[in-house]
Amino acid sequence: MDVININRVTPFITVDGSEIRELLAHRNSCIQKQSLAEARLPVGGSTTPHYHEVTEEIYYILVGTGVMTIDGEQRDVQPGDAIAIPPKCVHTILNTGTEEMKFLCCCAPCYEHEDTILVENQS
């Protein structure tokens, strides 16, 4: 049985610039086809616009407020919001709140740096 406590996970910075704590993935558990991580963004921080060739993602907002952009469409997001991010869709999230933003990232297949393609800022 794999039980991972977030307080024992070493954070790392992803290609898009977010701080991640990978909770379950093939690197640390029996999970092989998906991954679960907690991401954090400082006040005013955002991820670099990017997409994934094969990975689909779900973001679930735990703490903080922000703006989610997917393929140019923007939506305000807050705790309790679940966001579907299909493969090949350029996306970024901006922390517009007054506290560190925390959200869960579920990836299928598992998150890999090599599947993250950065793009120019799309204004």
Question: Summarize this, please?
Answer:
With 123 residues, the chain is mostly beta strands. It has strands spanning 12-13, 19-24, 35-41, 50-52, 56-63, 66-70, 73-77, 82-85, 91-95, 101-108, 116-118.
Descriptive account of the structure:
- This protein is an all-beta fold and 123 residues long.
- It has one domain (13-118): Jelly Rolls.
- Helix content is 0%, strand content 46%.
- It has no helices and eleven strands.
- It has strands spanning 12-13, 19-24, 35-41, 50-52, 56-63, 66-70, 73-77, 82-85, 91-95, 101-108, 116-118.
- Strand 6 and strand 7 (73-77) form a beta hairpin.
- It is globular.
- The mean pLDDT is 94.
Note poorly predicted spans: none
CATH top level class name: Mainly Beta
Tell the overall outline.
globular
Look at the structure and name the CATH superfamily: Jelly Rolls
Order of helices and strands: EEEEEEEEEEE
Across the major sheet, the strand order is 1-2-3-10-5-8
